[in-house]
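Ticket opened by: R.M.
Priority: normal
Category: complex prediction / small molecule

The reporter submitted a protein together with flavin-adenine dinucleotide and asked that the result be attached to this ticket for the collaborator who will pick it up next week. Submitted input follows.
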Amino acid sequence: MDPKIIKQLEDIAGKTQVLTVKEDLATYAYDGTTTWSHAPDVVVLPTGVDQISAILKLANENRIPVTPRGSGTNISGGSIPVRGGIVLCTTKMNRVLDINKANLTATVEPGVVLQDFNMLLAKENLFYPPDPQSFLTCTIGGTVAENSGGPLCIKYGVTKQYVLGLEVVLPDGYVMKIGGSTVKNRTGYDLVSLFTGSEGTLGIITKITLRLIPKPAAKRTMMAIFDDMTLAGSVVSRILAAGIVPAKIEFVDNFVIRRIEEKMHVGLPVDANTMLLIDADGSLAAVESEAAHILDILKDGGAQIARLAKDDDEANMYWKARSAGFAAIYSAARTVIAEDVTVPRDRLSDFIKKLDEISKKSGFPVVLIGHAGDGNIHPSVFTNSREKEDLDRLQDTLTAIFEAALELGGTLSGEHGIGLEKKRLLAKALDPRAIEIMKQFKNVLDPNNIMNPEKIWELS
Ligand SMILES: Cc1cc2nc3c(=O)[nH]c(=O)nc-3n(C[C@H](O)[C@H](O)[C@H](O)COP(=O)(O)OP(=O)(O)OC[C@H]3O[C@@H](n4cnc5c(N)ncnc54)[C@H](O)[C@@H]3O)c2cc1C
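Result attached by the on-call engineer:
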């Protein structure tokens, strides 16, 4: 990159906040995927919105690509700077600016780590439900840009249900405020929703006002074991059909159970074909009756074992193990593609059957972990990126997985986004006119295509 640009970036953000050494740049070449990497020319770690505005203005005038980045945990290639240029990393903007108990809102900078935020809220008896299982490291800015979800979204919804207001810096440097701090807001088109889930392609999110809720008074955790995965899938639909919406219903297959146990030694049932973990929360009386009802349905639905965790320690052990699921999977093969398809909840067991057929036909192991309660399964395909033949076959296998989900009325991505990983499949999932309209939005906001180029769209 032109040394004059580097000097201007240093003048804007300070010399120590601009990284150009090869070894530093290499650490920003990756994200949570195992197949993508590309180093940027420079990394900037701004500490304020004025700096971000000046950086984007400079980049826009010089047509330099800008890739926004939080903690780089996304699993869609979203923060890979495929065209080099600037990585704009928000981790130094990590202040919680306000927690308003009377209005049940909080305003934060984008680099606040989700777990730090949750811990602050817990002290106030408040609750922010969206819970991607990368919560120990992911930033709130990253979760808004990906519209992340997690186990709790079956009952509480995903990130977009909690974003009330945003401050965003547009590619020309303009600082725009949208939405506000009211729960209701029907003023013009909903630009807050447009930016939520925009994967860093429209601007940089610099301030976020979030809706909070009071922490539920009580919670019970249940564990159930099945000797047949499709049975576990159909029990999920039976729970929902009975009019019960638990706080979480998570699903783990035998491979993942054994792998987590190998890594963590927490006492999981390693012989179980499939394990469901379920939380009920709310008032004490409601939770007790809901849990009893769920246990009955689990037993009637064919669970070999269905029981309540005896105490908080046992419940925490299950959820700690569940959140280690991805790490356990990712270390199981040289290349792991953890997919993110979602099907209507009443088609879950059909989808599980289909995945088994696809795995057998392709010869690739496909292991399953996911948010069964909302139909969002992560079929994880094991392969080896060093074997060209494997990689070619892999694309066909992934396409078969997506097509199976779409045929069942599902979608390409429940929560990980499109990024680089799924853009080749976008046309299969969306109306061509809808894609055209989305591209026009992008063009209005970012006519020089500097913001996270090559993400979401196939190059035309
Ligand atoms: C072990 C593991 C478990 C996971 N579990 C889940 C899960 O349960 N649910 C789920 O939804 N996801 C999950 N993820 C994916 C990922 O953690 C989430 O997408 C998370 O929200 C990304 O946050 P981040 O700070 O790491 O963002 P990054 O990965 O740095 O960025 C994500 C995207 O947002 C853009 N971006 C980042 N910050 C900004 C900003 N301030 N303004 C504009 N654009 C920005 C980036 O350009 C990129 O496109 C998991 C990942 C891992 C590794």
